[in-house]
Write a structure and sequence with these properties.
Keywords: Signal. By secondary structure, the protein is an alpha/beta fold. It has a single domain, classed as Rhodanese-like domain (Oxidized Rhodanese, domain 1, 3-Layer(aba) Sandwich), CATH 3.40.250.10. 32% of the residues lie in helices and 13% in strands. A five-stranded parallel β-sheet has the order 1-5-4-2-3. The longest helix has 12 residues.
Length: 125
């Protein structure tokens, strides 16, 4: 028997501390956001990956440096998109940031590998 989430929260209040899963946005949304300067897009790939090319306008902030550089992120209630190579790291990182109180963080579906596959432009950092 599967209990509804509300019942589970009553039985185990610690579950309430876990944030909802980080939502995603399509690659096209990230491209539009970069082109119009509407949202901050942070590329969390590592420097060796950045060397292959990045989406113009994305902020480079390697996942390995994120804990020491949290001050470079926008406020916890401001929109933020994370992108990595395939979406696995950005999805996990977005979830951790949501658990830390970042309410508007999302990850980009497909990541930079899909960006390049579509032939969209990249620049050298």
């Amino acid at each position: 028997m599967k209990l509804p989430r509300r019942t589970l929260l009553l039985l185990c209040p610690a579950l309430a501390l876990r944030a909802e899963p980080a939502p995603s946005v399509p690659l096209e949304v990230a491209r539009e956001a970069l082109g119009q300067g509407k949202l901050r897009v942070i590329d969390i790939r590592e420097p060796a990956e950045h060397a292959a090319g990045v989406a113009e306008g994305a902020q480079l902030l390697p996942m390995s440096q994120l804990p020491q550089r949290l001050a470079e992120l926008p406020g916890k209630d401001e929109p933020l998109l994370l992108i990595c190579r395939t979406q696995n790291r950005s999805k996990a990182t977005a979830q951790k940031l949501r658990e830390a109180g970042y309410t508007q963080v999302q990850y980009v579906e497909g990541g930079m590998s899909e960006w390049v596959k579509r032939g969209w432009p990249t620049v050298k950092p």
